[in-house]
Amino acid sequence: MPTTVRSFSKINLGLRIGGFREDGFHRLLTVYQTIALHDVVRVRVERGAGIEIRCDDPRVPKDESNTCYRMIERALTVLNAKGRVVIEIEKRLPVQGGLGGASGNGVAALLALERALKKELPGPEKLRIASEVGSDIPLFLVGGTVLGAGRGEEVYPLPDLPAMPCVIAMPEIAVSTPKAFGDWDESSDPKLTVGSASDRMLEFSRAVCAWLSAQSNAKSGKGLSGVPAVRRGRAETPLLDLVRTGIENDFEQVVFPKYPELREVKRVLERAGAFYASLSGSGSAVYGLFRTQASAKNAAARLVKLGTAAQATMTLTRRQYWKKFLVSSF
Hints:
six-stranded mixed sheet; 2 domains; Alpha-Beta Plaits; Ribosomal Protein S5, domain 2; alpha+beta
């Protein structure tokens, strides 16, 4: 019997692009948030040797370039395990959509392998393997609300934001992340130059730190000045507080001019009542956050009517992420 798990996706609540690192990657700062949309991954271990990837979606590689393949290959070596590993990917998420589908698949395959073998890697070892394979893979070993730094692979659990209705719009456009970075580097806009990158990164860091301080003071019943905090209504959620810091996704500045239809999708979400809408990663997925499930469903229906695939869903807290990970526990 194969081990079957859900491979959840993510959105980026703000993303700042910094200068180059010594390894050639850009420095990044972002807040990842896991959401309920998912692929399904099944793993079984048979007699023999090798790794086999099965997927009906022709866009998913089935060779050594597949994220699942690279994760499993490294894990088998560390676990000193033998056998033929068969990985079946039921693809529901878009390829090159900015939702971390391939990265989530890799973590799902790794955790399913552990259960199939009844062996478990230490947490730091799993994070090491994940960071070697891809920049946003480690976040799926944490779940919930996560700060991403470095090139995105340095992950730090943040206080969980409450579950929130959201809409994921999935236009039939494949945005290449390397190409988006290239467009960023080639931009002549002074606001996008490396010279201002450190200041922009610092601004993002300060915004997140201020938000964390506000959350800590809210729990203690104190405002930022130390006086008793004003009681907030239902609409005043920690997520709204984070949005008010002015977080934004830098990729929008280079992706939207090349794909104006993505900018229009964002506008549709905002006109439909989203209190925050943004490109996720480098796209092409665009999401909107809503106060109620009803408004989210109405917005998704409006996008579908306009010809854009869209789905209403929910963000996932860390506890929900792990509780729903195994299919049998859903």
